[in-house]
Amino acid sequence: MSFSHKQLFRLSFVVLTIALATTSAFGTMLTFGPTNPGLLNIGNFSVFLNSSSCVNFYSGSTPNSPCNFTTSATTLSVSQTDTTLFGPLGTAITLYDLSPGTPPVGTVIATDTFGLGSTFLFEADVTPLTPVCQDTNSAGAGYVGTPSTPVSTPISCVVTGSPFVFNQNNNSTGVQLTENLCAVTGVSPASSSGLPGGCTTGTQYQLTITSQFNFDIVNLLAQSQTTAGVAGSSTSGTFNPQVVPEPVSFALFGSGLVGLALIGRRIRRS
Question: Are 168 and 109 members of one domain?
Fold first, then answer.
């Protein structure tokens, strides 16, 4: 079966339209700047944990009460930030508190206030592979001791069912959370409720937040389960782009270009 010039042109045009539509149906991908492309570091904020199980980010000296999922933070004044995309150093972003448990897919994690604005949507927590924290078997991996006799040596462990990694060194503990996010522009955070087809129209990101606490692991865990709670001494976060070509859009785009090339070849021959 053969196609006329008009049929090939129409087919190629439809394929190209579909390919381009897949990049704009749900926001658009981020456009990186030439320096530190896509990188965003945030700091100058703290975190508060208590028995509510909410991860409460806040700036200033006092945690928000109650945990309201709308806490503001600012970008770190460092050189490793894509200032073309996220604005001059010190430009404010909004970092939302994390609800108990794993947030629903599509939940807004952070928004950027510069230019077109970037919205970071939750996809999944990154599951840690370190041993589980435990206080019963002193010879086993992940043993943290008891509140009265905590382990003083360096140790790294996780709580069962939790995405947080606890890294103890002396009497201080760093808590790390890593999440996979989808970043888009042209989307209102208030109206975002899902990721149609996954992150096919956005840019894949990984967020790592690290908080430092002046407790050993076993006492940090105990204190975080009280209503009084515990606040971290310092918190920072890094949004790293995980740029991977989207195969469906690229394949469709390529097919459309091939079709147009065939049209030109036939015209030259005739």
Answer: yes
